[in-house]
Amino acid sequence: MDGGLLAQAVLNGLLLGGIYALVALGFSLVWGVMNVINVSHGAFVMLGAFTTYWLFVRVGLDPFLGAPVAMALMFVLGYLLQKYVINLIVRAPMFMTLILTFGINLVIVNLGIVAWTGDVRSITTGLSGQGVVLGPFVVPYVRAATLLIALLATTALFVFMDRTRTGSAIRATRMDLLAAEGVGIRIDRIYALTFAIGAALAGLAGALISVTLPITPFMGFTYTGKAFVVTALGGLGNMAGALVGGLVLGVAETVGAALLGPGYQDAIGYALLVLILVLRPSGLLGRVGYA
Amino acid sequence: MLRRQRPAVSPPAAEQPDAEAVRPPAALAAPAPSWGERLRAGPVPWILAAGAVALLLTVPLWASGYQVKFLTELYMLITMAAAWNLIGGLAGYASFGHVAFFGLGAYTSALTIVRLGWPFPLSLLAGTLVALGFALLVGWPILRLRGHYFAIATFGLAEALRQVAMAASAITEGGKGVNVPAVPPPPVLRELLGSSVAANRLLFYALMLVLLGATLLVWRWVSRGRLGYGLRAIRADEDAAATLGVDCTRYKLAAFALSAVPPALAGGLYASWINYIDPVTVFNVDYSVSMVIMTLLGGAGLLWGPVVGGVLLQVISETLWGQFLELHTAFLGTVLVLTVLFLPRGVLALVRGGPRRPSLAALRQHLWRYSV
Amino acid sequence: MRTRAGYLGSGLALVVALLLAACGGGASAPRAGGSSTAPQPQGTETLLVGAALPLTGDLAREGKQQKDGYDLWAETVNAKGGIEAGGKRYLVEMRYYDYKSDNTQAVKLVEKLITEDRAQFIFGPFGSGATLAASAVTDKYEIPMLSPSASSESVYQQGRRYLFGLLAPNAAVGQATIDLLFTLPTPPQTLAIISRNDLFPKAVAQAIESAARARGMETVYFEEYPIGSTDLSTPLLAAKARNPDILVGTGYTNDLVLMTRQMKELRFSPKATVQTAGPTYASYGEALGADANYVVSPTWWAPGSPYTDNGKLFGTAADYARLFQDKYKYDVDYIAAASAGCGAVLQAAIEAAGTTDPVRVRDALARLEVNTFYGPIKFNENGQNIGTGIAIIQIQNGQQIAVAPPEAATGRLIYPMPEWDRR
């Protein structure tokens, strides 16, 4: 394995990691604030991808303009789902919410297949596959944009949590539910809002995936799995954690595949996950949290 | 997001000390005997139990091939759920990767038969030992993790094993899968039933049933012994249990290793029963999820929880799937959602504790116990 | 202690009651799907054919295609008065169950079709793995199973007597592909192979490799990627570094869409890209647009294939494609064609046997030689069809152009394909 190839593998890993980071951002937020492992997160990614896809095919809307629409739709759907369904058992032991979201996932995916068939789709615009050539390296525009958007989204979320009253309320709820309630925070609304933000971020990730990768109604499971790994890698409930975890996973996968053979590409991620958990259970970034 | 004052919520139920955990077994017999108690204390239950076992054993003699297959698979799923109930139900450590042991059992058994020509029973033993060894090896580090971290670590391990089974083609045939030859049924059975098809069907039906029975008995034995009380103490409050002198690591490891055995045996049986395995099928995360769902649906930490949950889940999904060809997973999902919302402690929680006077307040408290 | 036993006894009794209810319930549950038969005219009987299909889950799309193919056959044959054998007329009834893309369920449901629904014949589930698993059951009950979607030789080498597959063996795919490349003025010297680690894609990849080796071509790279991969950049880069003349990619549609997209991203331009199985699906071209151009794909059947049943059932391959398109509003490809082909073959075997007795129909299948819209059928000793040849298409200007065999070709192979930045 020569150096040039390895360098390109690292670059590809970072670009892939941008997608993983964006997928994991909302997942990590929901998990961190509410202690809910949202197995249906991947289904929201799928819905975001299909919203963008249909806007492109039917209305001709550019996927980068379709992304905000997908986010808005997912925000509303997420808010309603949390407010009227998940909130009912949100304080139950963790595996109950897991089964609840597993059930929600089954419903969404099945309806997706019925509505859109199992066909593989992808958005191909003039930009697809195009990129800038820098010496021996190729940087595809769309993947670079995804990485950039992942950075922006992480920063925006950080500012929102740090600088706004609502953000403070979310952080307070996360740290101490009873105290937060005591000072008059409406927990149910905070939870609904948090889940809605998580769903909107999933919608954004889906929108960008639809331009880069093939999409199907059952694509979500793969991304939920990646979100799991990224969240554990970066550290639970840590906003920078999703970004760092995503990039680390992306690079580990591509470089690992280059060194061990592509057959082990997906095994590497999970092996890394177990290793990190055992050696450093709080993730790479430690216990910083939303505080 | 500020608002007017509302009554403070009670602390999350997950953190409430588990009433059951500390209740001595004698408490079960404490209430004054009702007619029901007297009936249950008489010979009736024994007759019922004996009749039930006898009836179950005769199923392959009169049921259709499909019904026997349905039940064999059901026993397999319940066996795995009951094994999960040791670590997930008693100790409260929710493993989401228990399919790892099923897959290890299936692959070890299949490969020792195909590549080394080992006899079927010996291959089952090999599968069990490999799974047990793996459980002890990984159990020690990952059982130090709690809650979510334990859940994702187990999930990650199972996924990693699936990927390795796929990638290590030289040994496992990778995604091509392994063809496992049919086990020749004992000659006695063949003569009794007239055909080797029927004999084979009965053989695996009986083996799965025996495995299920054995798993339940082991669970009951663990649950009522020292180990069981230690595990319940760990579930209620691990730090407190440690202070009281419970050797948490050893207890958890014992429960984890023990819970790896039935899935490994089920996996070994599965390989020779279906005659074909591949990584996607035997490391399918759906098996891990079904263990959790069946146990919770019935009632975690209860002997009959996985059994009742498993039967209900399979009957529901079977019925739905007969009714709605292309929408049945959506309906299954809806059933799961409704169950979790309205029966968060499992079906058996409704039955246990005897009849209570129904009141709207009690119902509301039951339904909204976990809400915000 | 006795109270405990009480719980035990009552629990067990409850469970048994539920189980027995489940058994009864399962048997009396309404039939799932299937084309309904019209009120039967005098003197006709019903022939029940069953299939377990992946109607939900990852393979929902393939399952739907098979179902549409099976249904189209059943409707067509019933409209023509049914199957005639031994002086009786049989109207076909199809019955389906969904196995959720899970092989264990496929096995269970095939058993249900045979033992409960009393299906007299079985049509295959999707893919080599599920077919292999299900064929253990059909052999056990001595019920013929016709598969439209399993092409890997290993499936047929297990000594199953009741399994018959319409798709030509993978070796034929490898042979046809390499033969086509060697009709070029300057044949390629080297190839790189990137294969999905799965029964069928791996078998095709190996078939192409061995056909290439026989012609003296050198395989400079051969790697497998895992099922469900979201990134193929590493194997593509490694292959690119070895500068092969040909890149062979095997997998399913989503894998191959990803592969082509990433080839463009990485500016990987071999002289030809051969992919299977995906480019023959309309969705492949729709997903990739112009980027799908120049991809070459061997396929088992194409609407332009020069086959006909001489007006007996569907007519020519093109007639079938038109009928299918009119009814289901999407383009037909080889899976949907082979599915209806299974029906045509079963019908021919029943007529030849003069009975619907499964064992005698099985013997008729083994001896069968018949022309259908799907192609000439002749099964080898393993039950795999060796009568029908392989077609090869290349996507040119968004159209699938047949480039081989010569008698069916509608265009010429464009080789070498233009590099990505010269398109």
Q: What's the order of the H and E elements of chain A? A: HHHHEEHHHHHHH
Tell me roughly what share of residues is in helical segments of chain A.
over 70%
The main sheet of chain B comes to: 2 strands, antiparallel
Largest sheet features of chain A: 2 strands, antiparallel
Shape of chain A: globular
Query: For the residues shown, what is the average pLDDT of chain B?
Result: 83
What is the typical, i.e. mean, pLDDT of chain A?
Answer: 89
How would you characterize the overall build of this protein?
The complex is a heterotrimer of chains A (291), B (372) and C (423). By secondary structure, chain A is mostly helical. Chain A has one domain (3-279): ABC transporter involved in vitamin B12 uptake, BtuC (Orthogonal Bundle), CATH 1.10.3470. Chain A has 11 helices and 2 strands, in the order ααααββααααααα. Chain A has helices spanning 3-34, 41-59, 63-84, 94-116, 141-163, 165-175, 177-182, 187-212, 220-234, 239-260, 265-279; strands at 131-134, 137-140. Chain A has a two-stranded antiparallel sheet. With 372 residues, chain B is mainly alpha-helical. Chain B has a two-stranded antiparallel sheet with strand order 1-2. The model of chain B is unreliable at 1-29 (pLDDT under 50). Chain C has helices at residues 2-28, 60-79, 103-115, 127-141, 153-156, 170-181, 199-214, 233-241, 253-265, 282-288, 317-328, 334-353, 358-367, and strands at 44-53, 83-85, 88-98, 121-123, 145-147, 163-165, 190-196, 218-225, 246-250, 272-276, 296-299, 369-372, 375-378, 391-396, 399-404. In chain C, strand 12 and strand 13 (375-378) form a beta hairpin. The radius of gyration of chain C is 23 Å and the shape is globular. Chains A and B meet through helix 4, helix 6, helix 7, helix 8 and helix 9 of A and helix 6, helix 7, helix 15 and helix 17 of B.
What tags apply to this protein structure?
heterotrimer; A: 291 residues; mainly alpha; ABC transporter involved in vitamin B12 uptake, BtuC; 11 helices; 74% helix; B: mainly alpha; 19 helices; 72% helix
